[in-house]
Amino acid sequence: MMDHIFAPLIKKGGVLVYMDDILIHAITRDELENITLQVLKILQKNDLFLKPEKCEFAKQRLEYLGAVITPATIEMDTAKLNGIKDWPIPKSTRDVRKFIGFCNFYRRFIK
Fold first, then answer.
1. Taking the CA of residue 4 as centre, how many other CA atoms within 13 Å lie in the half-sphere pointing to its CB?
2. Is 94 helix (H, G, I), strand (E, B) or coil?
3. What are the sequence ranges of the domains in the chain?
4. How far apart are CA 69 and CA 48, in angstroms?
5. Which helix (H) or strand (E) holds 78?
6. Tens of pLDDT, residues 61-97
7. Strands, DSSP E only, in 1-111?
């Protein structure tokens, strides 16, 4: 549903949606404000609401889907990295699959 209602903004760039998480990004402050207003209008038009305590605006550093994003980098959240380092030794095939699934999500960060 969210992908559908935000499709025009997603195609243009500046908006990423995963489930109910919306990430708005832009090069300039004016662009950011413009895209943010468009997102808010779409939410209002579709009777969708934001929880103010879950919103962050105009951040230079943020955590999104297990990644830490800055203007210069996208890195793995250190808590998730520690989760891999401290993973218990698998004792069954199911345990191995869980570990591989967890690592697979973060594969672009693992060297």
1. 2
2. helix
3. 2-58, 60-111
4. 26
5. helix 78-85
6. 988 888 888 888 888 888 877 888 889 999 999 999 9
7. 15-18, 21-24, 62-64, 67-69, 74-76
